[in-house]
Design goal:
The chain is an alpha+beta fold. The protein contains 2 helices and 5 strands.
Amino acid sequence: MNTGELMIGMQVRYPRTGTGGKVVRIEQQGGKTFAAIDTTGLLYRADQLVAVASKKDREEKKQERDLDQVKKEREFLSGTGFQEAIAHSDQSCEGGG
């Protein structure tokens, strides 16, 4: 991650261990930028961190996918092939066993 993009409160992940959390502190040490993550309290090199979408963003994307799936299912159920299959069924549930 570019150190100019790093901000306090940003959701990040350290890919080597999968550790993630919010940036709570940014420091300069030995000419390098480090960020402390709230979940561990440890410092991570800023250039090794990856920005992560927030939980709200993930939930919104999931809602969009769910709505798309519902639309597809409605289109399928209202299609002629499905309606013909229902019309040719006597609605009994014989198992044949």
